[in-house]
Structures are given as C-alpha cells and as structure tokens.
C-alpha cells in the first residue's frame, strides 16, 4: 500500500500513456485552424486540456493570422515577380534604387519606432500626378464634382504628352505605367497626337 501511494504521488499511474503525438502533429499541420475541441473529437480524447498540453509539448502556440486584402494565386505572384524583374532590368544602373528606407538600431527584441501616417481630412481634392525618375512631369487638380472617365483621361494623356515634349525633349521613348482602374484600361480612346508617340505600356499586378 505504501509503495502504491508513493507511485501515485510521483504521477505514475502504472500504465504507459497511449496518446498519439504524431497523429496530433499531422492533424495540426494539415489544418492549423482546428480548435482543441475539434482535435479532441477527431482523436477520441475526453479532455480538451489534454490536447492543449500535448500541443504545448510539441512546440505549437495558438496565434491569430494576419488579415490580408486579397489571397494571391500562384499566377498573381508569378506575374508580380515578372513585372518587378522587368522594372529592375530597365533601371539596373539607376542610382535611385540605392535610396531605400533607413533601418533603426534597437536593443534586444525592441521594436523600431513607428511613423504616424497623415490624418484623414473631411475635404479632399483629387490630383492627377505623372512623374518619372527625374521628378514630377505634369499634374492637375480636378474641379469640384468632376470625375475621371475614359474621355477625360484620354484628353489628360494629351496634356501629359505636351508636358513631356517640353520637359523631357530628349527622351526617345516612354515606359508608361498606369493602374487597372476602368478609365485607365488599355482600350481608352486616345487622340492621334498621343498614339503616334512611342510608348512601352507596363503591366500592373492584380491587387497592387
């Protein structure tokens, strides 16, 4: 009797544990969103706490995932890589690529100081800005209640062309990037002045 009490005091039930840690690992790796209750049901284990304890022993921690605007497909990712590679090759000798955001020295696991974004203002003015590696080429402000449609955008591109002729007269061609908003789509009606200029339209990745 004394021996049995001593064994019980040391946590030894006299029967080896038959918990399948490998099965638990496989279930979690297959679907990391399973709760301890769901895991207990699948493994026919009576206690959620038993599952939680073994997850801890296996090195798993419960954390929330990060919300992202869109789930990128493999095709989306490959397209982004392709576009980035093309842009880097176009400007492989550009010194502006060396101008990156500066890092901060911090101690241990401390985080770098954050920078506050500009606050939102109730009154807004829409501005169209066109620029290149040398700076702003052309900009204009939209009038109150005015919207950008395909016709307006085509006229705007003509005004941009005149600004390019004036400010960048020695450029033989243009590498032009615009987003995939409806007025900026490839079938925008353009005038002859704009069409006769040499252009290289750069694709924009989805959800960029």
TrEMBL record:
Transmembrane segments: none annotated. Residues 193-208 have a biased composition (Acidic residues). GO terms for cellular component: condensed chromosome; nucleus; site of double-strand break. GO terms for biological process: DNA double-strand break processing; DNA integration; DNA transposition; double-strand break repair via nonhomologous end joining; mitotic DNA integrity checkpoint signaling; replication fork processing. GO terms for molecular function: DNA topoisomerase binding; double-stranded DNA binding; histone H3K36 methyltransferase activity; histone H3K4 methyltransferase activity; single-stranded DNA binding; single-stranded DNA endodeoxyribonuclease activity. Residues 22-86 form the Transposase Tc1-like domain. InterPro entries: RNaseH_sf, Transposase-MT_Hybrid, Transposase_1, Transposase_Tc1-like, WH-like_DNA-bd_sf. Residues 1-22, 179-208 are annotated as: Disordered. This is Transposase Tc1-like domain-containing protein. It comes from Ditylenchus dipsaci.
């Amino acid at each position: 009797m004394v021996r049995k009490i001593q064994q019980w005091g040391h946590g030894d039930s006299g029967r080896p544990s038959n918990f399948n840690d490998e099965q638990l690992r496989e279930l979690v790796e297959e679907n990391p969103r399973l709760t301890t209750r769901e895991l207990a049901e699948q493994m026919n284990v009576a206690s959620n706490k038993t599952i939680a304890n073994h997850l801890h022993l296996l090195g798993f921690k419960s954390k929330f995932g990060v919300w992202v605007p869109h789930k990128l497909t493999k095709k989306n990712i490959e397209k982004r890589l392709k576009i980035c590679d093309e842009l880097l090759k176009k400007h492989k000798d550009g010194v502006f690529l060396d101008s990156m955001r500066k890092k901060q020295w911090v101690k241990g696991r401390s985080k770098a100081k954050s920078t506050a974004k500009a606050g939102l203002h109730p009154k807004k003015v829409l501005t169209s800005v066109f620029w290149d590696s040398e700076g702003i080429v052309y900009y204009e402000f939209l009038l109150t209640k005015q919207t950008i449609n395909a016709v307006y955008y085509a006229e705007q591109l003509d005004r941009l062309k005149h600004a390019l002729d004036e400010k960048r007269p020695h450029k033989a061609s243009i590498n032009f990037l615009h987003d995939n908003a409806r007025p900026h789509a490839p079938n925008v009606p353009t005038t002859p002045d704009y069409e006769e200029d040499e252009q290289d339209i750069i694709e924009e990745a989805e959800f960029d």
